[in-house]
Design goal:
It contains ten helices and 13 strands. The chain is an alpha/beta fold.
Length: 338
């Protein structure tokens, strides 16, 4: 099985390199046509993708449209509008010692791009980079996350129905497949995920001097000083933290609050949670779920440190964690290290 997967990856990559060598992807009309094709495909598959997002993340259609579909549609529109200008050669001034020669910058595609996407925004973070690959004239191999099987399955159906595999292909699997992909030489790697896996990707890319785009998670502090508008701050913090149940790389991660306004702010954030999701957010169709039972267990262990001042309810069977505020956290606690 493992050997068959490796051979499939190698054969597909070889076919994509051959197709790229025909220079068809460089043609401006070809790129614009395929951007339009992706736009149409997304509109046709939007309902199935939305249903899959509900199954994997309990993500409502409204949230899915705002954080996934609308961003891809906007990206496609932007590329279709500006691609002709972006692809034009740029005249540049020659330095004195090279006169009377003239120079131009020619914008050329790199070749075959590998796009590895995460589970938290599994539609947007695989198709938005694909927009860039198509627009620039590259071929692409897509690797969706195995942690959202419903979305990954629909994405695969959509891609296979829309594009020839020698142009845009898709590979499914877990970390073992990631390892097989990273053994290959791609011309660009676009990876979204954790810093730990980002290091693995960069190390593999370095062997071939492959350029990489790494979009990684991290700590995102929110600083609230004594003069802040607490109503606005509380609304923004509560909204930003609970979108996708907090599973966003730039979600507010911890608060640094002036002592004089701390208690007021915490009460206002708690009130905002209840205003948005009611007194029982588990029953609210607009509150998402944690991606896997293993992730719930990990987060539940992180919640053992400090003092819970709001929330704290966990239902592992439903992959539900209530919006929670924890006080008296030490910088060395595990929750501040991840």
């Amino acid at each position: 099985m493992e050997e068959n997967t490796r051979l499939t990856i190698e054969e597909t990559l070889s076919k994509q390199r051959s197709f790229f060598a025909t220079r068809q992807t460089v043609n401006l009309k070809f790129r614009l046509t395929n951007l339009a094709r992706l736009d149409l495909a997304l509109r046709q598959w939007e309902k199935k993708l939305s249903d899959a997002l509900w199954n994997d993340l309990h993500k409502s259609y409204e949230e899915a449209y705002m954080t996934e579909f609308s961003m891809i549609y906007q990206e496609i529109r932007n590329h279709r509008k500006h691609l002709k200008r972006w692809s034009r050669p740029e005249n540049v001034t020659s330095p004195l010692h090279l006169l009377p020669s003239t120079g131009k910058i020619l914008h050329q595609p790199l070749g075959v791009a590998l796009i590895i996407s995460p589970w938290n925004y599994p539609v947007q973070l695989i198709l938005n980079p694909l927009v860039g690959a198509i627009s620039s004239g590259c071929c692409a191999m897509l690797k969706p996350s195995p942690y959202c099987p419903h979305v990954s399955g629909v994405i695969e159906e959509m891609i296979r129905e829309t594009f020839d595999p020698e142009y845009i292909s898709i590979v499914q699997g877990g970390r073992m497949v990631n390892g097989m992909l990273l053994e290959q030489r791609f011309d660009l790697i676009f990876f979204t995920g954790s810093p730990a896996l980002g290091r693995v990707v960069m190390q593999a890319a370095a062997k071939n001097l492959t350029p990489v785009v790494l979009e990684l998670g991290g700590k995102s502090p929110v600083i609230v000083d004594a003069g802040a508008n607490l109503d606005i701050a509380a609304q923004r913090i509560a909204w930003g933290k609970t979108i996708n149940a907090g599973q966003t790389c730039i979600a507010p991660d911890y608060l640094l609050v002036h002592q004089s306004v701390k208690d007021k702010l915490l009460k206002k954030i708690a009130a905002c949670f209840e205003q948005m999701y009611g007194s029982d957010s588990q029953q609210n169709n607009f509150f998402a779920r944690i991606i896997t039972p293993q992730a719930v267990e990990r987060l539940q262990n992180l919640m053992k440190h400090g003092k819970i001042v709001y929330g704290g309810h966990v239902d592992p069977a439903d992959r539900y964690i209530e919006p929670t505020l924890i006080d008296e956290i030490d910088p060395d606690d595990p929750i501040m290290q991840e």
